[in-house]
């Protein structure tokens, strides 16, 4: 029954599901883990790079943490090709803001613009959702240090500690138990 509804991103199943978004989420759940922890003095962002083959040269492999701007970095889980496209778009957004206003883009504004782009790919035919999730860590003068998580549907939220990728559910429950505000 699902085959009738999973060929297009704009068709909902009778249960109200968009299967293409769920497939993108599945790609993320098989990717290396990325963990972000916010503190009053900064943010820790750690990523696991999975070896897909023993024959793969590790020094030439893909990255998991990218600099989006001078004040924002992102850890990615999911399809690397999709991540590269979105990272380049976010860099363009940040540079346009810097050129226009003469100051770095606020962290949440950059994340919102990136998620607007991701959401657009879920509502137009002929496009598939990006199969990548981001943990964006950054600092701006208005709100200090911030940590945001985004998903392929274009949703984002602010976190004190978050995890994406393989076994993110287990890691999230450990973070929930062990996290302290100090």
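^ structure tokens above, recovered residues below v
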């Amino acid at each position: 029954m699902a085959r009738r509804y999973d060929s297009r991103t704009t068709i909902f199943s009778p249960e109200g599901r968009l299967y293409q978004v769920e497939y993108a989420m599945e790609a993320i759940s098989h990717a290396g883990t990325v963990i972000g922890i916010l503190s009053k003095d900064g943010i820790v962002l750690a990523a696991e790079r999975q070896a897909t083959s023993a024959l793969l040269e590790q020094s030439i492999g893909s990255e998991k943490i990218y600099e989006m701007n001078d004040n924002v970095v992102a850890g990615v889980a999911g399809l690397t090709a999709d991540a590269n496209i979105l990272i380049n778009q976010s860099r363009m957004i940040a540079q346009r803001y810097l050129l226009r206003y003469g100051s770095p883009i606020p962290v949440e504004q950059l994340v919102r613009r990136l998620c607007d782009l991701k959401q657009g790919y879920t509502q137009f035919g002929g496009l598939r959702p990006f199969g990548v999730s981001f943990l964006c860590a950054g600092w701006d003068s208005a709100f200090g240090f911030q940590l945001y998580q985004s998903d392929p549907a274009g949703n984002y939220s602010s976190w004190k500690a978050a995890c994406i990728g393989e076994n993110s559910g287990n890691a999230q429950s450990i973070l929930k138990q062990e996290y302290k505000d100090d």
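The beta strands are 34-39, 42-47, 65-69, 72-78, 132-140, 144-150, 156-158, 161-164.
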